[in-house]
Amino acid sequence: MNLRENWRVVLLLVFVVGSGIMLLVPGAPPGTAGGSGPTNLQYGIQLDGGTQLQAPPVGITAEEVNVSADNEAALASNVSDALSVDPIDVRVSADSSTVEVFVGNVSQERLRSVLEAAGYQPSTVRDGVTQQTRQEIVDVVSDKLTQSALDSGSVSTIRSTSGQTFVSITAPDRDLGELQSLLDERGVVRVYAFYPADNGTYVRQQVLEQGDFARISPAENQQGQPVVPVTIRETVAEQYQQDMVEYGFGQQTVCNYDREEPQSSRGRCLLATLNGEVVFSGGVEQGLAELYASGEFAKSPTFQMQTRNMSEARELEISLRAGRLPAPLNFEESRSTQLEPALAQQFKLNSLVVGIMAVFAVSGMVYLRYRNPRVALPMIVTALSEVLILLGFVAAVQYPLNLSHIAGFIAVIGTGVDDLIIIADEILQQGEVATGRVFQNRFRKAFWVIGAAAATTILAMSPLTVLGLGDLSGFAIVTIVGVLVGVLVTRPAYGDILRNLVLRQEQREK
Question: Which of 52, 100, 108, 111 has its Cβ near the most Cβ atoms within 10 Å?
């Protein structure tokens, strides 16, 4: 075979071999450990079981609030005081000219009146949060899934027909309770100093917030006690050290903190709260107290948070690593889908059977049309190679397969063979092919038709990939990639194969 004239066939072989490696060689997809089973394919909940949860963020947004960057903090404090909400539940942005309140019991009229009383005139006040907040929620939830060993989980935003935006979380091989418990809380971590005041009462003073931690080590058991080692950022270590000395932690302290009845607690304690609940309480040992007093702590600002059990320690670690959700999710208005693994396995088997049936059906129709194995067999092999390349692509990017993607594969098989039939008919039904130039002219004419059809398909499918329409997006992505592979790789390669077959036959007949 002349490689120069048949380089398209060589390119097809390279793609097929590369796809086979991505599909079958364990650990071949970059940055992954591959899939489960004999291939590197990842499966979504429809083919592997699991849970999909869709919940809207809780919040209300005032738009076109003309606040300057210098007045952001002051307006946020004003709004939180006027509405009697935690400052963490108010976000003011001069860049987007918005004010967001992340609680569900504040009405649009109440927020508008507070802003107007502060001298601002919002154009609209609506339910929901901004795009920036939604993206932060997606990022944090993604981190939570990763830190919780749900590496195959996915997070996105979708919009309902009524215009409401939902955060959609898919967790293969996980039940609804496990997923919701991970997402039910916002993951807000704060550290307080608890100490006696001069008048005999006790004070709980915040000394660290979530963004003050630079490094979070894995939760571990030390001498039977679950702990989370943490390191504070250098920019806040000095102030934290001074606060500890000021509040009386420059010497060893004894902590008697009662989590059930905090009012009866005594001593000096360092407290860590997760979503408002105390998960760590303890005194300061002599060694750490001496570091506070001498000023050496700021040079290596590391200490340990001790919890009651490993589950609590792990939850604290995840929240510190992933960060907090800027807004909570409303599970009362959530929608969920749960599929048992046994039923998913049945869907997987049925999908394989349907795919095989589609291949046999297409092969039979091709053979009945041409009655010539020399034409039909290369056509079928080329179409199957296109499916193999698609599978290799899916394995390489570790895209979880669902039923919609299987439908995309079947659509690619059908449209791919349609294009190959157009090529074969244009070349074989127009009389003899005496020379390579005649073949190229006919092939070029057929390829223009195929290219126009491919462009139309891509344009029609493109909106589905960006509109957040759930499973339809997966169908569109598979179809578009299949069309591109066909136009750029498999159709030209089939043209070279058919040219060799036709010209050799013409030469033999002469």
Answer: 100
The pLDDT score that the predictor gives to residue 6 is 78
Claim to verify: residue 99 and residue 200 sit in the same structural domain: no
Query: Do the domain assignments include residue 2?
Result: no
Residue 299 DSSP class? G
Look at residue 356 and tell me whether its pLDDT is greater than 90.
no
Which comes out higher in pLDDT, residue 400 or 451? 451
Same structural domain for residues 233 and 298?
A: yes
**Same domain for 463 and 438:** yes
pLDDT of residue 399: 78
Instruction: Calculate the average pLDDT of the chain.
Output: 83
Rounded Cα distance between 79 and 106, Å, is 11
Largest Cα–Cα separation, the chain: 114
Q: What is the 3-state secondary structure (H, E, C) of 455-502?
A: HHHHHHHHHHHHCCCCHHHHHHHHHHHHHHHHHHHHHHHHHHHHHHHH
Regarding whether 459 and 402 lie in a shared domain, the answer is yes
Residue 1 lies in a domain: no
Give 385-389 contacts, CB < 8 A, sequence gap 24+. 385/12, 385/15, 385/16, 385/490, 386/412, 386/413, 386/416, 386/482, 386/485, 386/486, 386/489, 386/490, 387/412, 387/413, 388/16, 388/19, 388/20, 388/23, 389/15, 389/16, 389/19, 389/485, 389/489, 389/490
Give the domain range for residue 120.
Answer: 60-128
Residues 6+ apart with CB under 8 A from 150: 171, 174
Total count of domains within the chain: 4
**Whole-prediction pTM:** 0.62
The count of other CB atoms within 10 Å of the CB of residue 364 is 12
- Give per-residue pLDDT as tens, 151-193: 557 788 888 777 788 888 887 767 787 787 777 777 788 899 9
How far is the C-alpha of 160 from the C-alpha of 165, rounded, in Å?
A: 6
Nearest CA to 112 out of 99, 130, 93, 131 is that of: 99
